[in-house]
Amino acid sequence: MATTTNSGEAQPASTTETGAPQATRSTRTTARRPATGTRASSRAKTPKAPAGPKTRAEQAQELAERAVLVPVGAGLLARDNLISTVKGFATKYGTRESAERELKRYERRGARARNRFERQVRRTRTKFERELRQRRTRVERTVKQNRRRVEREVRSVRKDLEKQSGTISTRVERIVSEAQDRIGAIS
User: Fold this and answer.
1) What are phi and psi of 4, to 5 degrees?
2) How many helices and strands, by DSSP H and E, does the chain display?
3) How far apart are CA 182 and CA 176, in angstroms?
4) Is pLDDT of 47 > 80?
5) What is the pLDDT of residue 1?
6) 20 to 30 A Cα–Cα from 66, which one of 48, 90, 96, 126?
7) Contacts for 162-167 with beta carbons within 8 Å, 24 or more apart?
8) How remote is the C-alpha of 161 from its chain's centroid?
9) How far is Cα of residue 10 from the mean position of the Cα atoms in its chain?
10) 21-22 and 14-15: which strand pairing?
């Protein structure tokens, strides 16, 4: 039995010790050949694409063809998409049971989304209320501390003023009595 290589030449098939045909070494090496080498060899074998229309008439013909083929192709693609969508709906909602099953599925999904949203709203509200209570408590505590501090300062200043007023009044009384004594001694 003969096998062919990549170049198309026939070679005799080699056999193993059991007598079964074995793939030739050249076929194995081409399978392991890097992709770049294969690509380069296939590129050399393929004919080059025409560079484009040469004359103005050919260019105009190509533009006219494109002007007609593009909308036709777009319309066919849209039609194919529409048909596949309609077929999908027909298979999904073809019978009453399948339509009801899909509606129940949508209902369950909607219920899950609603419940998730409600939980999130409750969680957010609870967090907001907790933070508000903590801030209020902090402000009240700060106001109380500041009030106590101001009251303490006022009492301290009042005591100092009373002390100083007592000292000043005794000094004034002493000065007044000394002045009266001097006036009385002069007269």
Assistant:
1) -110, 150
2) 4, 4
3) 10
4) no
5) 46
6) 48
7) none
8) 67
9) 61
10) antiparallel
